[in-house]
Design brief:
This protein is mostly beta strands and 358 residues long. The chain folds into four domains: 30-96, Ribbon (CD59); 100-159, no CATH class; 175-227 and 234-249; 256-357. The protein has helices spanning 5-22, 107-111, 308-317, and strands at residues 30-32, 34-35, 50-52, 59-65, 68-74, 85-89, 98-100, 120-122, 130-135, 138-143, 156-159, 175-177, 179-180, 194-196, 206-212, 215-220, 238-240, 251-252, 257-258, 261-262, 276-277, 282-283, 290-295, 298-303, 321-324. It has a four-stranded antiparallel β-sheet, with no helix packed on it. Strands 13-16-15-17 form a four-stranded antiparallel β-sheet, with no helix packed on it. It has a four-stranded antiparallel β-sheet with strand order 20-24-23-25, with helices on one face. β15 and β16 (215-220) form a beta hairpin. The N and C termini lie far apart (153 Å). The chain binds 2-acetamido-2-deoxy-beta-D-glucopyranose (NAG) (4 copies). One 2-acetamido-2-deoxy-beta-D-glucopyranose binds next to loops. Residues 30-94, 175-246 form the DUF753 domain. Pfam families: DUF753. This is DUF753 domain-containing protein.
């Protein structure tokens, strides 16, 4: 058969090229290649597509540099130290799962969501689960081991997927303002941290206590050395059960409105809409309250904290002073005047004219 020289040469080259692309190149493998520095997907191997390594490369690696995760082809002389790097043989073998790791000694493991990159840890394999648990009231996070098992899913979780042990844990735990002394005076002004409590216990509460406007302490009842650990029993301690509820200033504006009246018209039932603001500022530990006091042939309805003398009078009056805090104008119900008539006759008793008390 006759072929022009040129065609024969190109034909041969074409066959060679086809041949080369069909046979695997000796020693070249595919690895996952990425860095979490420029692609967060690198933390999740399922989102990374493997790519060819250069000729001669036989291993892949996943490395951790201060939380920055890098996956790639391990060059011949490239170091891969056991504590920060995992190497492996086989296509796409560097599909290690990534979890958060921090210990019970690190308060931030309990008090933050552990989202900081420094907590990233490379697990043994793609199927290694993430683990988070409460241990001695503190949180621990890491890659799970075969021995880890959870008996209570509130305080222990073993989960699939990358970074699946991040987030506040247990999910439902109270957050409180936590601070002491001057920077603690007004949480709306200074950047007072509001965060989960250091310890995790059931039915925890936030507290606030203060010796003065500049000596305020806020925290969690469960804190080691908490100033208020019994829940309001101690002098000046106020506790509460909702997130960041311990936010009061030393003195605060009252919110409750009270009926405020005195004299004859004050006996009858009052309209709740007539309730007025209680203007005096009260201490953080004072409970807002309205009162109705019937004594000495007079009636007074007002705010309990308006002045110290009235409060004292109300306390001394016992049942004659009714205190309430449940709603605006709660001190509105009718009171019987219960007045007594003085009975006398001036023809029998001269004093009856102008000094009837005798
Ligand atoms: C699980 O732990 C929570 C939180 O400590 C606790 O309230 C609950 O009673 C525990 N449940 C069981 C079944 O032990
Ligand atoms: C204090 O917390 C309550 C809710 O618990 C909220 O309604 C109020 O605005 C907060 N006050 C300040 C000063 O943060
Ligand atoms: C105030 O009014 C409420 C509702 O009318 C009543 O239940 C309560 O006993 C009254 N208390 C005072 C202090 O007047
Ligand atoms: C909303 C609010 O102030 N909640 C509580 C915060 O803490 C103070 C003092 O500890 C309580 O008096 C408040 O009820």
């Amino acid at each position: 058969m006759y072929l022009p020289k040129g065609i024969a040469t190109y034909g041969c080259l074409g066959i060679l090229l086809v041949f080369a692309s069909l046979t695997p190149r000796v020693g070249a493998i595919k690895c996952l290649k990425c860095s979490s520095n420029d692609d967060q997907n690198c933390l999740d191997y399922t989102k990374i597509v493997a790519a060819d390594c250069a000729e001669g490369v036989e291993m892949c690696f996943t490395s951790n540099d201060g939380g920055v995760i890098t996956r790639g082809c391990l060059q011949k002389d490239q170091p891969c130290e056991a504590n920060t790097c995992k190497s492996c043989t086989g296509d796409s073998c560097n599909n290690h799962n990534i979890c958060k790791k921090c210990s019970t000694d690190d308060a931030d493991c309990s008090q933050t969501d552990a989202s900081l990159v420094k907590y990233n840890e490379i697990c043994e394999s793609s199927t290694t689960q993430c683990f988070v648990q409460v241990k001695d009231k503190k949180v621990e996070r890491r890659c799970a081991t075969a021995d880890d098992s959870c008996s209570n899913d509130t305080t222990c979780k073993k989960t699939d997927g990358s970074i699946s042990n991040a987030g506040y844990f247990p999910t439902k735990r109270i957050h409180c303002y936590q601070c002491a002394q001057t920077d603690c005076s007004d949480v709306s002004v200074s950047a007072v941290p509001k965060k989960p409590c250091r310890n995790y216990v059931d039915n925890d509460e936030c507290y606030m206590t203060a010796e003065s406007a500049t000596a305020v302490t806020r925290g969690c009842k469960s804190d080691d050395n908490a100033k208020c650990s019994t829940g309001g029993g101690e002098q000046g301690c106020v506790t509460c059960q909702t997130d960041n509820c311990n936010n009061s200033t030393y003195e605060r504006q009252q919110k409750l409105k009270c009926i405020q009246c005195q004299g004859t018209d004050c006996y009858k039932e009052q309209a709740a809409a007539e309730a007025k603001d209680c203007e005096k500022k009260i201490l953080y530990s004072d409970k807002e309250a309205c009162f109705t006091l019937v004594a000495d042939g007079d009636i007074q309805r007002s705010c309990l904290h308006n002045d110290a003398a009235t409060k004292e009078k109300c306390e001394k009056a016992g049942d004659a002073c009714k205190v309430c805090s449940n709603e605006d104008g709660c001190n509105r119900s009718a009171e019987s005047s219960n007045f007594q008539c003085i009975v006398c006759r001036s023809d029998e008793n001269k004093d009856c004219w102008n000094d009837a008390s005798k």
